[in-house]
């Protein structure tokens, strides 16, 4: 599958597309507020990447690069990407859109941490991610899965 | 509604009950491993609190007290409770079990932070919780809601 992954811009069209996704929450509402109050410009870069089918956004994820001092997962502490809100619209699932987004994230060459929904653990394992050993004080309600470019796992 | 909230013990019966809840993940699997490997004793105290209907666990939540130095939500920094995995079994919803658990958590007299599912925001607002102003670096994929015993909100 050869899908084109694009960095999404913050504008009313993108925010309207986001409403189709289940994980629409405070992050999206905050982007809308910032746009309406001119705190950010129309077409600013967002932390979201997505894939369009024609004119329609059908898959997306959010990515954020965290500095080594925030790292509580890799040894030694290092820069890593936090990946969240990976989601493919129902009619487009099982066609490789999710894989394409995760492969794109891996392409930055940094370790990746994600906190997947319980129902998606098999997907993350198939993508080469490993569940951490649970540490309550660190992980609380999370189910972190990690990937490292060198294949190193805790 | 006068429900009795109990601190749950880690034993095979409790862990079997947990399988009925949707949010069964790495935390529960880790407790099972620890029990099987004798890392924790049978009937150890867990971070979970729950309500039984007869013999059956029908509602639960996890609570963890975090020290002030971990606080990134309240001003000044202070001890607070992190609340997660609040869940009521489908046939027992809308009967006040969720309220009873949250009221129990409030009874500790500490501020509370939770990261609710997007679909449950109305419940948390009705319980007196307030959504934070979104800060991407801090909140990433979360939708934090806060409650403070003095009614102070950011």
UniProtKB/TrEMBL annotation, chains A, B:
Keyword Zinc: no
UniProt keyword terms in alphabetical order: Acyltransferase, Transferase
Organism whose genome encodes this protein: Peribacillus saganii
CDD domains according to UniProt: NAT_SF (cd04301)
EC number from the UniProt entry: 2.3.1.-
Name recorded for this polypeptide: Uncharacterized N-acetyltransferase D0469_04300
GO molecular function, one term: acyltransferase activity, transferring groups other than amino-acyl groups
Residues annotated as domain N-acetyltransferase: 8-152
